[in-house]
């Protein structure tokens, strides 16, 4: 195992643990306030970061142990969810922080993790092309999350984000508009991730003939 592989694995595992620490800190705050654990787990930010931390830790350990890497489709899903998490936060929600916000934890889940996954996708694109149809399941989780939030909201008397709250001006019409906008954003970002991956894939460069077994083994030791 090369020094660079050990370093990459260690960095990824360390960043995953940083995300876990940030999530644990915010969860501890939630259970000691009126927010509660049920509402905490109902934030898309926390769900996407839990998934991302799992993928990052698994990938880091795979590098250190020289075992099979995380499948690219799982990496792509995590990248999509975290990029959208960061984009929505910094464009729509950054002004909502208050005195109770734990700044460092907030920055980790909304800034560090999205940046890490986007950089990893750019620097370590999938080796093989991703058919467009295989990326469609990436959209299932955001759509299920939307349904969950809207169904849970009335009984809980709480919505994770203002743009999902029909009690605000505009009611469900406002929610429907934002739901369509964000769904389109997910679709666009997913398409860009696949487009980039396919443009960079070696199989695409070689006319779809695939790669050698040696290249495949090398890639397993150098990617998440």
Task: Characterise this structure.
With 224 residues, the chain is mostly helical. It has one domain (3-220). The protein contains ten helices and no strands. The chain has helices at residues 3-31, 36-40, 44-65, 72-93, 103-123, 132-135, 140-156, 171-200, 202-205, 213-220. α1 (3-31) packs antiparallel against α3, α1 (3-31) packs antiparallel against α5 and α4 (72-93) packs across α5 (103-123). It is globular, with a radius of gyration of 19 Å.
In a nutshell, what does this entry contain?
The chain has 224 residues and is an all-alpha fold.
Sheet with the most strands? none
Regarding quaternary structure, what we see is single chain
How many strand segments? 0
What's the gyration radius in Å? 19 Å
Total helices: the number is: 10
Order of helices and strands: HHHHHHHHHH
Structural class assignment: mainly alpha
Query: How many separate domains?
Result: 1
Would you tell me the overall average pLDDT?
Answer: 90
What is the percent of helical residues? over 70%
Low-confidence stretches: 203-224
- What gross morphology would you assign? globular
